[in-house]
Amino acid sequence: MNKFYVHTFGCKVNQYESEKIRRELLLCGMREAKELKDAGLVILNTCTVTSRADADARNFIRLCSKNNSKVVLTGCYAQRAKEYLSKIDGVCCVVPQDQKQRIVENLLSAGLVLRISNARVDTLDGIKNHTRAFLKIQDGCNRFCTYCIVPYVRKELYSRNKNDVIKEAQGMINKNIKEIVLCGTHTGLYPHLSDVIEDIIKIEADFRVRLSSIEINEIDDKVLKIAVGNKKFCRHFHIPLQSGDNEILKKMARRYTRDFYLNRIKEIQQLCPDISVTTDVIVGFPSEKESAFHNTVSLIREANFLKVHIFPYSKREGTPASRFPEQLDCSIIKQRCRFLAKISRECSKKYLKNFRGKKVDVLIEKNKEGFSYGYSSNYIPVYVDKQCPANEFVRVRISEEYKNGVKGEIDETD
After folding, report:
1. I need a surface site. Which of 221, 299, 373, 396 has the fewest CB within 10 A?
2. For residue 44, which phi and psi values (nearest 5 degrees)?
3. What's the whole-model pTM score?
4. Distance between CA atoms of 151 and 139, rounded to whole angstroms?
């Protein structure tokens, strides 16, 4: 078999799972292509959260077909539409999400690998081409928000043994990983999440831990205490909002109200003033009136998020929301998205202004166009006008806002 290439769409969990697939194929004796054009076999790990994610996967399949590559599909889109995808030219095998852990066996049955290794990739010590390492601790969701397809394609709830998580984190740190991102399909469903965070940050080394995403009603006081009191835990939470209107939140089957969300955000910001909060918002949910949209806008302004990830509502067949009346016209959704993007930029600038003259520790990720670039603990993109080694922490004094973040100089006074 010719060389293989693994490509990933979607979340950090997908990226983690793709890295496991990549390493298992190497254990099978296969060679990895550095570029897509050199691959005879392409493993495409798909996402299906939005119709755009589906379209991206189909476009990628067409790109592979031009190279005469054999395409193997896995992931959430493969779970949702196996029969449809299997009929696309170039696709030789579809491995649904719930069979992804046995993908090598599926490839052997299809004659796409010649042998399989007795060794298994149970843990990772990093992710290829990433300074930060994703560590999957949980899978599955049973919340069934009315717009969301995820509970239908990642049905099985699973939380990893805490000792296995600690062991994997230790292995990453031994490989000089400086930032570990704990991730899951629904990370907050991991039992005793604060305990596993505490045990990881007890490891003696120069590193930090970031939480990928968590719901507002799943941030307990113990997690907040860690965020305030331990510098190894990143001063950043990604907390999905989806809407700032109570009626829409109820139709979405979200488990909080506008006031609960906003009051909890303010409590977090008061306990830890330099903490940043990023969020997700769905624009154009069925029956979202102008007043409901402006309730979302006003909440975003008041919460002062570092960044708002804006998602136009995407109708997912099989979800309750896909059958709701009053589906909004695309032109209205696009107009609201543009307006919300403007508000998001204003909030980001307002937040970043607070850091002028302050010092932050930055994990350098890359050097580009004369700058070193990385992220602070509170997830601020920081540009440094100096070449710094990647995967190293540097202390930076921030001078001004720049591009999508801030710019500063190396501070050597400490």
Report:
1. 221
2. -110, 115
3. 0.95
4. 10
Query: First and final CA of the chain: distance in angstroms?
Result: 55
Rounded CA separation 317/236 (Å): 34
C-beta separation of 47 from 80 below 8 A: no
Q: How far is CA 256 from CA 64, 112, 182, 194, 224, in A?
A: 44, 48, 24, 21, 19
Pairing of strands 381-384, 371-376: antiparallel
60-112 tens-digit pLDDT: 999 999 989 999 999 999 999 999 999 999 999 999 999 999 999 999 888 88
**Angle formed by the axes of helices 193-201 and 162-174, nearest 10°:** 30
User: Given the structure tokens 């990143």, which residue do they identify?
Assistant: 234
Per CATH, the architecture of 4-109 is what? 3-Layer(aba) Sandwich (3.40)
Give the separation between CA 74 and CA 110, rounded to whole angstroms: 14
- Going across the sheet that includes 91-96, the strands are 4-8, 41-46, 70-75, 91-96
Q: Count CA within 13 A, CB hemisphere, residue 232.
A: 15
44 and 90 in contact (C-beta within 8 Å)?
no
Q: What is the DSSP string of 235-258?
A: SEEE---B-S-HHHHHHHT-SS-H
How far is 306 from 308, CA to CA, in rounded Å?
7
Of 36, 43, 24, nearest in space to 115 by CA = 24
What Cα–Cα distance (Å) separates residue 240 from each residue in 212, 254, 265, 377?
Answer: 11, 10, 11, 19
Instruction: Name the CATH architecture for the domain at 359-410.
Output: Beta Barrel (2.40)
| Domain 124-234 grouped into CATH 3.30.750.210 | yes
Q: Give yes or no on whether 4-109 and 124-234 have one common fold.
A: no
Residues of the chain with pLDDT under 50: none
Query: Judging by DSSP bridges, how do beta strands 381-384 and 359-368 pair with one another?
Result: unpaired
Spatial separation of the C-alpha atoms in residues 341 and 332, rounded to whole Å: 14
Contact 357, 401 (CB under 8 A): no
* Residue spans per domain, the chain: 4-109, 124-234, 238-354, 359-410
